[in-house]
Amino acid sequence: MEKKKVLITGASKGLGLAISKKLSGEYTLILHASKEESFTHVEPGSHILCADFSDHEQLVNFCKQLKKEHGDTLYAVINNAGVTFDKPLNFQPDREIDAMLNVNLRAPIMICKTAMKIFGLRNAGVIINISSVVGESGNAFQSVYAATKAGLAALSKSLAQEAAALNESHHIRVLSVAPGFVETDMTEALPGAMKEKYLNMIPAKRFGKVDDIADAIAFLLSEKASYINGTTIHINGGLL
Q1: Coil, helix or strand for 112?
Q2: Which of 75, 145, 198, 227 is catalytic?
Q3: Is 217 helix (H, G, I), strand (E, B) or coil?
Q4: In terms of Cα–Cα distance, which of 109, 84, 108, 79 is closest to 97?
Q5: What is the pLDDT of residues 129-158, one digit of tens each?
Q6: What's the rounded Cα separation, in Å, for the pair 140 and 3?
């Protein structure tokens, strides 16, 4: 029996790589990165699908290719790809704003649109959008990034309602996962004083690990999570 396919965007490093390792045994993976040479590790049997999501034409072609090549057995989409440029908004160049809006929000919207078309044919499928704790709490110097992550949470809730409105007997789930501060390249770049500040705000008294998030996503994709829908799962050590 052919394994179900799961798309993971931003799968070449950090959280995306951890998710791919966690899911590789149970699913056939479709792994995305902006460039193929970004991959230092690819799980056996995986498919590679590359595109720079800041480029509209590449995004459109990516969605077409996803539907054409993998639409028959696509089971789930994990919108994980994201970028951030941390600085005060009044000093933020337009190119950085555009990049965050395109990669963090526009790309997931377009991929969700493609996935909903695919899932609508059999009324089944799962979408998990990777949001962030700052999408709810806000964070100085991450105004645009936080806005895109809040947008993903709202997108997930709305799409879950749309699926039900279109077909009451559907089995489509859409939700978001909002990690707190997780040990990745993104948090590694934070100044030491800022790291200490955030650590003191976390009741668990540690930063998260990528496996903390990957384990939760593996569960959310399973049938055991079939009643979890249209919500945001916070994984942040108690930060909120």
Answers
A1: helix
A2: 145
A3: helix
A4: 84
A5: 999 999 999 999 999 999 999 999 999 999
A6: 43
The answer to whether position 240 is within a domain reads no
Residue 190 lies in a domain: yes
Could you say which residues of the chain have pLDDT below 70?
1, 186, 240
Query: For residue 97, what are its two tokens?
Result: 């704003």
Per-residue 3-state assignment (H helix, E strand, C coil) for 133-151: CHHHHCCCCCHHHHHHHHH
**Owning domain of residue 112:** 5-235
* Distance of alpha carbon 63 from alpha carbon 58, whole angstroms: 9
Residue 65 lies in a domain: yes
Q: Is the pTM of this model over 0.90?
A: yes
Compute, in degrees rounded to 10, the torsion defined by CA atoms 139, 141, 144, 146: -20
3-state DSSP call for residue 108? helix
145 is catalytic: yes
